[in-house]
Amino acid sequence: MNRDSGFARHALRRLIRQPGFSVPVALTLALGIGASAAVFALVNGILIRPLPYREADRLVVIRHAASRIDLPMNGISPGAADYYRAHNRVFEEIGVYVEHVRTLSDLGDPERVQTALVTPGVFSVLRTATSAGRLIDPADYEPPAGNVAGVVRGVLVSHDLWLRRYGADPSLIGRTIEIDRLRLRVVGVAEPGFHFPHAETQVWMAWGWPTTVASRASLSGLAYGSIARLKPGVSRADAERDLQRLVGTMPDAFPDVTRSLLDEMGLRAVVVPLKDAVVGDVRVALLLLLGAASFLLLITCANAVNLTLVRAERMRREVAVARALGASDGHLARRFLSESVCLAALAGALGFALAAVAIDLRFGFAPNEIPRLREVGVDGAVVALTLGLATLSGGLLGAVALASARRADLAGTLSGGLSRMTPGRREQIGRRVLVGAQVALALTLLIGSALMAQSFWRLKQVKLGFDPEGAVIFRLPVTPNAGAGRNYYHEVARIHAEVLGRVRALPGVDGVEAGNIAGFPLTPVPSFYKSRIAAADRGGVSADVWPYALFSFATPGYFQAMAIPLVRGRTFRWEDTGRVGHGVILSASLARALFGDQDPIGRRVRWARPSRDPDYTVVGVAGDVPSETIRDGPSKVLYFPNLYPPKADTITGVVHDYIPDDEVYVVRTQLPTAAIVSTIRRLIHEVDPKLAITQVGTLGELVAGSVARTRLTMLLVLVAAGTALCLGVIGIYGILSYAVSQRTSELGLRIALGASPKAVVRMVVRQGALLALAGIALGIVSALALTRYLRTLLYEVSPTDPVAFVVMTALLFGVALAASYVPARRAALVDPVVALRHE
């Protein structure tokens, strides 16, 4: 024990006396270990760790896809869910849900909470429990009867909400809370940590449907979420085959589903593991980051090994003397291992600290930008990985140092002579291979980062179709009093009209308008906001060939406030709200899809599916905007007028089914966002104290958020690539510097025999260039093989883009030449007299 502690103390003293070696090695390893541990924590928390549900590996989501038509609704319908539940052979239970954001307005200030209407089967599938009260059951929902809508009787609240808003009051069970002005009875509190379908879900509301409704399959209503539990031993492929069998029997079970319709659609059932559904498309980005971190770890290890080899060669005389004095191989092994363990322990501690900071900061991501990000943290797996990497690093450095030292020739080392002039061929080859590998890995990362940067730049250059500068936005959902009855929409319109009037009167406000969330830029919405739109004067065309479009609503000044150009026609007027000749505005892409190059002004459009609603007259064509994401491009949008008629009987049927109860306001102002938002909150509270605004920000922030994931992925890869470039260049510089120091006598002799300083510079730089070119060749091959996995992350950029390959190759080669020139210049300044006298 004393001997081991003595070795450790001596090792620390030696390392402290040699900071030129110990500090670079410790920092290099710390960087590699820290980056690897941080990225592993991210990948482990999101991709590897099981979902927080019992037997989560058997949980799946049921979806539908159509191979022959553009089907935007890919969930499940109530009728299909009941049919599958009754006739499937592969599921224990199926649950259905639909999400909403609602206003919770009891006990203090109103707040917007994420809610979900759920069938009791959801809780059976998830096998959850409560911390107080009970779960929802069928008695908590009164299904619709005739023209009377269904009534929610009971709700379940999350444990988080119970603690935060209600102070864990046990008497909440059985009491009522107010959601969207409805008094709903709390039947229970969910167990701690339970959230479904998202981490933000706070309230679950009882839901169901009568058999007479559920028995009608409505394939156009495949917009609901589902969760199902596979029976033991059933695979996902087995489940898909069984559901496809049931899809084929739908024409025999449902009168409104025909064999020709199924064939025309190519409808098929898709079973997705719940984890895959939750993680979504972030999997590829995370695996990319893991690969980048692995490359960086390899580069740091290669750099540390190179520094260790250099030090070991410099210590050969010391090792030879120790052997001459009787030191055994075991003694030398303990010495080198103790030094390596000390370095690895320091590197591991620093790396763990770096990883902990990155994890605590969530890598700069907002919680809603990456699924399951809230579950990422420092746990036993991260600690074990850090310890494992530190241990392996220490063992590797110790083994390399010992192996290099043991190859020393005792007589030659002690006698000096020409053996000092050049290092051994084996040592030269080993170090050059390591540096070449560093360069290759660095180039692969550089090319990947260049592709991501180019993709991000192209996203930033996309014409948005609106002006994000100087615009504050917020969302104002409005639910009138339950007693509004037939005046429901009139009451909602009155509230919005009053809010618009008050905000317009504020000093410093240049204008304020409102539009429905469905057509608002860069705001994805559920698929039930889409429907097929047809040209009314082109009869005889099948409904399934017409394009899908978002149906949205806008005030007359909305397009001007958003700086969306009107390319044809005019904006809305009061006469456009009448049922006869109701005016609508088409987006440019929808106008082209319906009428080609013909002028659509004055033409009529309608719903492609049979409807009691009248045809609508096209009064204008607005410029295209991306309603989903910038990557998805322009959206087809049908805008209805939102003029808030003063009389309830002028509100027209389906036109106002979704509006104006969920508006996005656009406020043009040069005032600070915080100041104007605070004033708007006060005004809205004066209009109705139970209203709460949400999604407050600027249009610029909305645009930035739409490319946030691409930007942050790019930045992380850029950081890894930049670090790899520095380490690779340091490797080239280090090996050439060492070679020059070892060849001082040789270079002095060359100069004494007539070699010019320029020739010496060219010789050393040529060595660095050849070393870099070898690594570059390997790096190009590696990049060609690996960058194809970036395809799903790139936007209008090929994974083999020649610009990225050429520019990054030139950059790396240029930096490598610059790194080679410094030791080459030093070599040219060698005084031959001093060098030969020293020899």
Topology record:
Blueprint: H1 2-17, H2 19-48, E1 59-66, H3 78-87, E2 91-104, E3 111-118, H4 121-126, E4 130-133, E5 141-142, E6 151-152, E7 154-157, H5 159-166, E8 176-179, E9 182-190, E10 201-206, H6 211-214, E11 225-230, H7 236-253, H8 259-265, E12 267-273, H9 274-279, H10 282-314, H11 316-324, H12 329-360, H13 380-406, H14 410-415, H15 425-461, E13 471-477, H16 488-504, E14 509-516, E15 530-535, E16 548-554, H17 558-562, E17 566-569, E18 583-587, H18 588-595, E19 604-607, E20 616-622, E21 637-641, E22 662-669, H19 673-687, E23 694-698, H20 699-706, H21 708-742, H22 744-752, H23 757-786, H24 802-828, H25 832-838
Parallel strand pairs: 3-10, 7-9, 16-21, 18-20
Antiparallel strand pairs: 1-11, 1-12, 2-3, 2-11, 4-9, 5-6, 7-10, 8-9, 13-22, 13-23, 14-22, 15-16, 15-19, 17-20, 18-21, 19-20
Helix pairs in contact: 1-12, 2-10, 2-12, 2-13, 10-13, 10-15, 10-21, 12-13, 15-21, 15-23, 15-24, 16-19, 21-23, 21-24, 22-25, 23-24
Q: Uncertain regions: pLDDT < 50 for 5+ in a row? A: 211-217, 410-422, 646-659
- Roughly how many Å apart are the termini? 44 Å
Number of strands: 23
Strand content: 15-25%
Rg over alpha carbons: 35 Å
Major sheet summary line: 10 strands, mixed
Class from secondary-structure proportions: alpha+beta
- The mean pLDDT is 83
Shape: elongated
Percent helix among the residues? 40-55%
Count of helix runs: 25
Provide structural commentary.
With 839 residues, the protein is α+β, with helices and mostly antiparallel strands. The chain is built from 25 helices and 23 strands. The strands form 4 sheets. Strands 1, 2, 3, 4, 7, 8, 9, 10, 11 and 12 form a 10-stranded mixed sheet that branches.
